[in-house]
Write a structure and sequence with these properties.
Blueprint lengths: L9 E4 L2 E4 H9 L4 E11 L3 E10 L11 H9 L10 E4 L13 H9 L10
Parallel strand pairs: 4-5
Antiparallel strand pairs: 1-2, 3-4
Length: 122
Amino acid sequence: ISIQDRKKDIIISGGENISSIELEDTLFDHDEVADVAVIPVPSDEWGESPKAFVVPTSGDPDAPGVTAEALIAFCRERIATYKVPKEVEFVTELPKTATGKIQKYELREREWEDEGRMVGEG
């Protein structure tokens, strides 16, 4: 057994465990991705599903140089279909600490604020 992710960063989608690190590593292989964070977001169908926040190499989320659909297709060619992000959002930057660590909890709070539960609560 190999643990690659923090429990809160494991996405449980339809009973399958998905590592956010594996998705991030896959997306980093794309030339148009400068930075990325993947988190679980609410899904009526699956409980949770993966969502990628991507900083494009262009630096402009309005002109990222690649489409969300193209990034999803890129992932689909490299990893199991159930692991592929269901959504991609282009952003200017990701929230980070003073030492440069991505603050995924800020992204999770934003995505889960309208839910009656928080990530990992079933």
